[in-house]
Amino acid sequence: MKEIILILLLQLVYVPIFTLRTIFLVKNMSTTAAFLGFMEALIYVFGLSLVFSGERSTIAMFVYAAGFGAGIFIGGYIERRLAIGYTTLLVNLMHKNQELIDRLRNEGFGVTVFEGNGRDSKRYRLDILTKRNREDELFALIEVYEPKAFIVSYEPRKFKGGFLVNAMKKSTKDNKASDSNK
Q1: Residue 50 belongs to what H/E stretch?
Q2: Which of 21, 60, 102, 123 could form a disulfide with 51 if both were Cys (CB 3.0 to 4.6 A apart)?
Q3: 145 or 159: which carries more pLDDT confidence?
C-alpha cells in the first residue's frame, strides 16, 4: 500500500514540474527548464519502476493515471498563481474614454490610444502591455469604466522599448541606487 501512495504522490509532483518545465521552455527560460526537466525525468523513471515492479501493477497503473490527471490541475493552478510573463490587451471602445485612459496610466499601465473606422462609426483601441500577474486587475478596472468594451488578450513572446520596458529599467536602477546607499 505504501508503494501505491508513493506512486500517487510522485505523480502529484511530476506533472506540475512537467507543466512548469514546458512553460519555462516556451518563455525562453532554458536553464530553469533544463533543471526542471532533470527533476521530471528522475521522478518519471522512479515512478514507472514502482508501477511495473509491484505485485499490484494494475492498481498501480490506475493510481499512476489518476495522479497524472490530478497533477494537471495542480500544475495549472501553480502556473496561474505564478503568472509568469506579460500580456497585451487590445481594448476596443465605442467612445474615447479619457477618464479610463487617465486611470489606467495613473495605475502604472502603459496605454497607447488609436482611432479607427468601424463599420458604423469611429472606434477607439487601447493597446496595453502589462505583467500577467496584473491582468485580472486590468480587466476589472476596464469593466468599471467600459462594461461593453471588446477585449482581446494575448501573450507577446518578445518586445523591445516602450513604456513598460523603460519603467522596468528605471525600477532596476532605482533599486540598485537604494541598495548602494544602505
Answers
A1: helix 30-53
A2: 60
A3: 145
